[in-house]
Specification:
This protein has helices at 11-23, 28-41, 45-56, 63-84. The chain has 85 residues and is an all-alpha fold. The protein has two domains: 10-41; 43-85. It starts with 10 loop residues before the first helix and ends with a helix.
Length: 85
């Protein structure tokens, strides 16, 4: 595995992260590793649209269909982040 170092983290941010880690029974390092993994798993809107375009071929989604796809992706993201937060 690779190490990552973050500099110049404000004290109040560090304190909040330490509290969140403690509430989960984790070290700060473990908590941040889980948080980074969850963030990396989240698709961005461009990836969602590209996947939808590949599935649809020339089909153009309506505004409502696009909004529904984004809503589903955000729910999935929130589940992932909720597990890390």
């Amino acid at each position: 595995m690779t190490n990552v170092q973050v500099r110049d983290v404000p004290e109040d941010v560090l304190a909040r992260l330490k509290k969140r880690a403690a509430r989960r029974g984790q070290s700060l390092q473990g908590y941040l590793r889980d948080l980074l993994a969850a963030e990396a798993a989240v698709e961005v809107n461009n990836e969602i649209f590209a996947r939808a375009a590949r599935r649809a071929g020339n089909y153009r989604a309506t505004e409502g269909e696009s909004a529904e796809e984004i809503r589903r992706a955000r729910e999935e993201r929130d589940k992932i982040l909720g597990a890390a937060g």
